[in-house]
Amino acid sequence: MRFALSEDQTLLQDSLSRTLADLSPLERVRRFADENQAAAPDIWAGLSELGLPGLLVPEEYGGLGLGLVEAALAAEALGRVVAPTPFLGSAVLAPLALMLAGTDEQKSRWLPKLASGEAIAGVAISEPIAGARENAGVAAANGRVTGTALFALDTAGADLLIVADRTGGLHLTQLAHSAEPMPSIDATRPLCQLTFSDTPAEPLASNQALERLRDAAWVMLAADTLGAAQSMLDKAVAYAKERKQFGRTIGSFQAVKHLCAEMAAELEPARALVWYAAYAFDKAPDEAPLMAAHAKAHLSEIGRFVARTSTEVHGGIGMTDLLGLHYWFKRIGQNRQLLGGPERVRETAARLQGLIA
Fold it and tell me: By CB neighbour count within 10 A (0-12 exposed, 13-18 middle, 19+ buried), where does 184 fall?
């Protein structure tokens, strides 16, 4: 049995990585963050030419019809360059929601547009997954939604919104009463607060679709963290090979070697965990919820360790804006808390295993 990526999967990730190196260099990321841009249409247009928005969309609707393993590889590549794209919401969660719970008419209307990149979908599902803050949450009745959804993803320029209500039901709407940016440590992935006031919304079928969206989102966030952490490790190793102190490169000092080795030793096994969690989502659905929880919680801890240690290897310059390490550092930090911090995710894993009531 082969426990490795297929040739096509390797080619997909390599091709995407090369494209992202041109589309989303650090200078472009810095401009996006410094100018508080809500979206980066140039980057998304370039990725649309590769077919990335339609990665999960079935071929009959104009997509590539691939699985979550391929989506995880894409998320890892995007995390490596902290690309400011609507990938998680528009290319993963929204298509999955429509495929899992949409009617034939809803699928025919939206999936081809999402697959081509013509339409962008925002997703607001945080409250029933990560817990609602005071005065947050959406109520649904008679084809309308009312309330506030926090930490909504990819809402800038969105043509449709997938919204979860307090009971876990999913709804499709094309508008919100108001949309306000939310402060966040990660300027490369803007979050939004959506307010609905008796807003018309089409209900999606209630068949535990939200749990599947949660699992997919946890795997994608873990993969994104994996890519960001690998990039930070690579930068630390490269810096240690060129920075000199006392007439020697700092990479020749045992303490620095140990720091880099510890990062690599922690990160490499995490890659297999993310891959298997993505594989389980498609091929072993009974295992998927637990594996997704493990991947999200574990990468949250490993990512934070690598982010801190890589910054330490760089010394004082690692804390400056000059190198831009903080973009990866903050992306890892946001991934850690988005849709549930590691403590909450581990509680879910314990419940799934019957360890707590």
Answer: middle
CB 111 within 8 A of CB 57: yes
pLDDT score for 4:
82
Q: How far is CA 53 from CA 56, 65, 256, 291, in A?
A: 8, 11, 41, 25
The verdict on residue 2 lying in a domain is no
Look at residue 107 and tell me if it is in a domain.
Answer: yes
Q: Is 144 helix (H, G, I), strand (E, B) or coil?
A: strand
Look up the domain containing 311 and give its range.
209-352
Q: Cα separation of 215 and 285, whole Å?
A: 10
| More confident of the two residues 83 and 250 | 83
Cβ partners under 8 Å of residue 155, min gap 6: 89, 122, 124, 161, 176, 179, 192, 194
What digits encode the pLDDT tens for the residues 324-335?
999 999 999 999
Domain boundary among 116, 142, 157: 116
Distances (CA, A) of 79 to 24, 221, 235, 347: 11, 9, 14, 26
**Same-domain check for residues 241 and 341:** yes
Alpha-helix runs per DSSP H in the chain: 7-23, 26-34, 41-49, 68-80, 94-101, 104-116, 126-130, 209-242, 254-283, 288-314, 325-337, 342-352
How sure is the predictor about 141, in pLDDT bands with cuts at 50, 70 and 90? very high
Q: What is the CATH number of the domain that holds 299?
A: 1.20.140.10
| Predicted local confidence at residue 317, as pLDDT | 82
253 and 335 together in one domain: yes
pLDDT of residue 300: 98
Q: Are 228 and 294 within one domain?
A: yes
What is the domain-level CATH number for residue 73? 1.10.540.10
Q: Are residues 96 and 143 both part of a single domain?
A: no
